[in-house]
Amino acid sequence: MIPEFRATGGSGGGGKGRATASRDHYPEPTQTPPLPVWTDELGRQMRLHTGLDHPPQDHLEALVVMLFGVSQRRPDLLDELCAAASRANLPTPETDSWERALKEVWKHRASVLHPDAHPDADENQKRYLGEAFKCLQIAKRMLDQHNANTSAEDVRTAAAKGDG
Q1: One-character DSSP codes across 63-86
Q2: Are the C-beta atoms of 60 and 154 separated by less than 8 Å?
Q3: Is the CB of residue 35 less than 8 Å from the CB of residue 52?
Q4: 81-29-45-70 Cα dihedral, nearest 10 degrees
Q5: Contact in structure between 30 and 145 (CB atoms under 8 Å)
Q6: Each residue of 3-31: pLDDT tens digit?
Q7: Is 84 exposed, middle or buried, given 0-12, 13-18 or 19+ CB atoms closer than 10 A?
């Protein structure tokens, strides 16, 4: 993955100011990332960041990973995803609203889990965040492949499971 940065700051006139780069977009995964050999410590760290101590195995576990902590930090995203799931299961599916809502949740979760978003973290913490980010990528791919066949009840259940 090649990160995208936007330069900000700087004086523009060759002065002393220095431009800094800030990340504002985390690209969605195009393939499933490889995971390391699983250990108890890695499992404990995963649970802290994703709500599961292993990579997601089905679409409900993928929802748990995607929605972990969202109800406390950004409840508006959870409400939007529930509404999109309700609309997507009507006789005329509106998968666009589901995809938009899921993309917003992805952006939020990626900004929380990506190791580059935590410049003060030590190397071990960055490694654990990197593995949690890989689990998030796997979850996003699983939900993209599941393609809006998720009910609002599934979303609420996954959010409650991830928070509790």
Answers
A1: HHHHHTTHHHH-HHHHHHHHHHHH
A2: yes
A3: no
A4: -20
A5: no
A6: 555 555 555 555 555 555 556 666 777 77
A7: buried
